Amino acid sequence: xxxxxxxxxxxxxxxxxxxxxxxxxxxxxxxxxxxxxxxxxxxxxxxxxxxxxxxxxxxxxxxxxxxxxxxxxxxxxxxxxxxxxxxxxxxxxxxxxxxxxxxxxxxxxxxxxxxxxxxxxxxxxxxxxxxxxxxxxxxxxxxxxxxxxxxxxxxxxxxxxxxxxxxxxxxxxxxxxxxxxxxxxxxxxxxxxxxxxxxxxxxxxxxxxxxxxxxxxxxxxxxxxxxxxxxxxxxxxxxxxxxxxxxxxxxxxxxxxxxxxxxxxxxxxxxxxxxxxxxxxxxxxxxxxxxxxxxxxxxxx
Length: 301
Hints:
45% helix; 301 residues; schiff base; eight-stranded parallel beta sheet; TIM Barrel
């Protein structure tokens, strides 16, 4: 367990859920990966999540997954906190990845609700409790029912918040009413992060800690400024920045994440454009829509 059971890192602001750049043949482009980390440091991102959904965790193998975490921690070299994607639908595999991230020096692990096998609320509770008991790396739960097909209830989240080592949750349900209740009822030490760009500012205004963001892959400075404005209660700036990013937030999900955001990153000249099956290239019509959103946000000419 962590030295002080509830003494965790405090993540604030904008946390890009970093893509894993690939060459056209699908091989990981580690040089582009390092350059993206450098760029996010320069652009003011507050931390980075690596090898999460946007990082194509389902399509990289175990060895690559571990290497992506190691390279990120080593290359960041303390300049920006690294949160490692360490989830899985197998508790044993999730423990393995979490222990690897701990040894690599990550600041926390992001662990998704098990997918496909559709655990009960008790199964979710036991899954995350067992992970926490087998590592000293602080764990951030990740609830994304649109992908996992199951939704972790507030009651289960509150139960898990009592377990030493479980520091917070990334909530991607976008249900502000439910999240308002969670923010009201959670323990003080437990941090709630948005995982839904369109509602991120609203969640932070209600007391959320940060936004783990897809959009920040292409608009890191604007997303950082939006999160800071929301934390400070600067409603005029929140409205202005949220309006600037609103169309981009929507169109980066016109096809399954990370297909559109990888196209956008490549269109900005920050990486080559490569995917791994079963992910495929975006349709021409949707490429036009994403380009229009990038132009509207002032990110390309």
